[in-house]
Each structure stands twice: as structure tokens, then as C-alpha cells.
Fold this protein.
Amino acid sequence: MGLLFILVIPLAAAAFSLVHADRRFAPAITIAGALAVLILALKTAFMVIKTGEIVAIADWVSCNSLSALILLLVAFVALTSAVFSWGYIEGHTGSDRVKKMQRYYSRFNLFVFSMLAVVLFSQLALVWVAVELTTLMSVFLVSFENTRQALEAAWKYVVLTCMGAAFALIGILLLYWAMKSAGGKTFTWEELTTVSQGINPGILKTAFIFILVGFGTKVGLVPMHTWLPDAHSQAPSPVCALLSGVETTTILYVILRLLPVLEVSPSIHSGEWFLVSGLVSVGAAAFLLIQVKDYKRLFAFSTVEHMGIIMVAVGLGGPAAHLGATYQILSHSITKSLCFFAAGSTLLIAGTREISSVRGLIRTSPIAGGAFLIGGLAIAGAPPFAVFLSEFSILRAGIAGGHYIAITLLGIFILMAFAAVMFHVNRMVFGMPPEDAVRTVLPKTVVISLTMALVPVIVLGLYIPDSLYELLRLAAASLGR
Amino acid sequence: MTISSLTQLNALTGGLFLLSTFGIIAMRQVLGCLKMFILQSVFLAISALLLGYLHLSIHLFAVAAITLMVKPVLIPYLLRQTVGSEVTARREISQLINIPTSLLIAVGLTILSYFVAKPLLSVSGAAGTVTDVNLPIGIACLLLGAYTVTVRREAMPQIIGILTMENGAFFAGISIAPDLPLIAELSAAFDVLVIALVMGILTRKIHERIGSTTVSDLKTLKEV
């Protein structure tokens, strides 16, 4: 039953957000809803660790270890970004403030619902619908500021990801065809794995390529990534945290769940597909990171890089690399959301997205500057943060598996990206602030959510609780056969 | 009706479906594109009806009914409501590649889709059935829709291009996945409606803000 509540709560919160009431009502109900979802997600995760896959409605709604991991991440980032929105959005609304805020929170909740639905639905046709909804529910969040640039970003976002979804749809239908001819009955993840031995590799391969290209567009794999830096830089920062931190991972989850089916037929070479598309993404992102001029685009390109790293880890294959992949999913989501909160606070203070106009951030606002520095260090992969550990475990697994060329390339790209991110962050955080800079006080909720996001980033680099490690291990195990 | 005459009738419908997709590429005005899209959706529904009769499947009859309700009626209505007069504007739409060249490329894409579909048909043992028609034409329509989105410079034809891609996927779908659960069909139809609604509203916002719907002129966001 818990799983159904997780789906119903954001829908209810979306409806209540539109109720005409005090202007604090919509944000309050959103935060309360997100908190409830997080508690239920924690409960679900513990149950999954203890008893394995939970089924709420057979063949329709269920949750395995990988879904539980993503569920937890979506719920956590949804809560922190709901808190961040409280102080942030009020400053970004014009004359009809209450109405705009109500609409914002309603869409925010629907967007969170669609992401939760992707991981909880077990019927593949519905998963496709949910993926499409993640785009459609977030378009107006991207265009929230209604500037020329925001509208451009929203248009590119909806056109490219809808095109991708159409490609993925034909892939999903081909998969259904292959499953039916192999004797499968219901179109669920579980049934697909059960009959995978009998699935025709020829059809499966075509289906996989359509799905990889289609959903890869939403994950932001190069060369289908062009919409990502635009949308992830123009949306309001709390929405960016959701888009970059968890939406990309949520869609990647759909591709990852096909893995046990793909591994049955070696003739598909799915590992090579993952490896090559991952390396191309990491490499392109590493070069693009060097020349960014906008600090939100900096973090957006870093998302492309991290999605590539996860793809490479999955492509390497084997339990150690898969564990590295799930660990990377965790560390990327929590760190990237912190980065976008720090970027949002910087935007509140500096009023510009240009890297070259921000100097001496740590002097104008120690909180934003400190968060920006920690976020930058953590996402670039400096020790002792979680991203360092996860990237290190992926490199180690690759070397142990004998993939020397891939690991050398990956290592070089990661170092390049590290240098690029640190170069830009360093320029912004230190140095003398411009003459006219004033010390600005950040809204209280912004500071609270920065702290909330900061805690796991620091803690998980030093210590992983046993139950979380167990969840990561189970999720990694679900990727193999 | 015998099976062979049904299959032949379905092949005719498939041909007309593909022809209307070419029509979307060939049309010079937005209204023409929209009319071609309506026609295309009707052929999709007819094919679903024929296949439903062939497989004796209530399912496909439902799909045909949903398609007839949503695509030729509700979507044009929604687009007209949200986008406004831009839909019926009788002016030429600019595009990156001229129409005769576009049609040649479209022929090339159609041939390509037969190459993609052929090995699938032979390994699945579905050669000689209705899938022979529906799968390659569905993939062709998907590619042609993607092509339309790429070369048309204005918002409305790009929306129609995306809806065309979905139509192509469904056209292949009715033959290779005829018994998807009804909930999935319904939510897919709902999804297509939401696409039209969201993109329609976004087009209006762009029109209000920028004064034109030539979306390819929006190029402020890029590196360097």
C-alpha cells in the first residue's frame, strides 16, 4: 500500500497547491507532501533490503532494489528543492504573485509524481507514458521565468525529448513483439527477464538501439544532449536540481533495467554500446566544460559527464563495476542538487549567470560561496567526497577487468573535467569582489535547504551506513543476471 | 471478407498513410499540413479497424475508436484553441531545404526504413502478414516525422512533425503489439493530447513574447 501512497501524495499536493489560500499554503503543502514521500520511500527501501521486491499491484506497480534507490533519491531531492523553492521563487514572481506561485508548486508536484511513476510502474508501456510525462510536466517549469531565453530552452527541451520518446516508443513496441513471440504474457520487467532466454536477439537489438537513442536523448547522452545545457541553465534553480540531479538518472534507470535481458544475448554487444556512448559523452563534456561562460551551464555539462561515467561503468560489466555505477548514481544525485542550490543562491546574490562577472563570492556571501566551493569540489571529484570514491571504484573495477584503454580514456576525461570545473569555481569563489557588490542576506529556507543538501554530500564521503551499502549492492546485483 | 482481401485492403491503407505523410512534407501552408495530419490519423484508425477485424480483436476496435476521437478531432481543436490564428494562417512556411529536395530525401528515408524492417520481419516469421506493411511504413513515418521537425522552421509544423512520429510508432504498434492492455492505450492517447496541449500553449507564449513562431530564429543559447 505504501507504494500507492507515494504516487497519490504528490498528486494530492498538486491539487491542493491550486487552492486559493494564503500565499504560504502552496509551498507548505508541497514541503509536507515531499516529506511524507521521503518517509514512505525510506520505509520502502528498508523493506526492499529486508524482503526483496515489493509488489503493490501485481503486474502494474512494484519496487525492486534499483527502483528503491532512485525512489529515495527523487524523494530526497524533491524535499530539499521544495524547501529551496520557498525562498527562491517568491523573488522571481512578478505582479500576479500568488497565482504564479500556485501554478509553480502544482507543476512541481506533478513533475515529482511523474518521476516517481517511472520507477514504480512495472508495466513497460506505462513506464513509457510516465517518461513522456516527466518532459511534459516540466516544460512550463523550465519556461517559468518567461524570458526569451527560457522559452527557447523550453522549446528545444520539449521538441528534442518528444522526438526521443517517439523513437523509444517504437523500441518498446518492438520489445513487446519480441517478448510475445518468446511466450511472455504480461509486459512487465519481471516477465521480460523470465522469458529473456527465448527472445529473438535480432529484434531485441533493434529495440535496444531505438530505446538507447530515444531515452538517451532525455538522459543527455552526446550527441543528443544539445537541449540539456539550455534547459538545465534556464530553469529556476530548484527545478534545475530536480532536472539535473534526478530526472536524468530516472530515465537512465529505464535503460539500466533492460540490462539483464540484454546480457542474455552476447551478439547484441550491449556492453560495448554502453561503453562507447558513455565515453563519447564524458569526452565531449570534458571539452565543453573548459569553455563555458555560464556557471549553471557548467553544472549542466557536468551532468552530461556524470551520465557518461555511469554508462561506462555499466558497460564495463561485472559486479564491481555495477556497484560503482549505483554508487555513482547516488553520489551524483546528492552532489548535483547541492551544486544547483549553490548556483541558485549565487544567482540571488550576484544577479547574473556569467562566470566572469562573479568574483570573491566567499566575501560577499560566505554561505553561498562556501556551498559553491564545496559543491564544486565534490562534483569535480575531489577527495574526500562521495563522487571521488565512486569514480575511484569504477576506475578500479575497470582495471581489474582488464579494460585498460577505456579506463585510460575515462581517467583522462575525468581529470580534464576536474581541472575545468575547479578553474571556474576558483575564479568565482576567490579573488576581490567587484566594487559595487553588497553583502546580501539569503532567505532562511535557502540556507536550510543548502544545509540539508550539504549533510549527505559530506557524510557519504566518509561513511556509508550499512543499510545504504546493502541497497547499493542489491541494486548493482539487479543489473546483472 | 477473406484474409487475403483484408490484407490487401490494409496494404492500400498503408500506402495512403505513407502518402499522407509525404503530403505533410510537401505542403507549403500550416493549414495544409494539419489537414494532411488529420487524413493520416484517419488512415491509422482504418488500419486498426481492418487489423481488428482480421484478428477478431475488440482491443484494436477500441484503439481505432480512441484514435478517431483524439487525433482528427480533439488535437486540431486543442491546437486551434491554444495557438490561435497561427494554425490557419495561409502563408508559406519557411524551411531549410526546399520541397522537391525534401521529397527526394523522404523517398530515401522510406527505403532506409524497409532495410531496417526487413531483417526483423524475416527472423520473426511474420513475413507475408499485415506486419509486412505496417512495420516498415510505421518506421518510415517515424523517420519522416523526425525529418519534418528538423527542416521546418516554425512551431506549428514542428508540432505536427512530432505527432506524425507518434502516429508512425502507433501504426507499427497495431500490428506488432495488437493486444497491449487498454489502460496503456488510453494513457498513450492521453499523452498525445497533453503533448499537443503543452506544445500549443508554449507556442502561444513564444508568440506573445517574441512576436513570431519561427522557432529556429531562437538561437541565443549556445556556447561561446
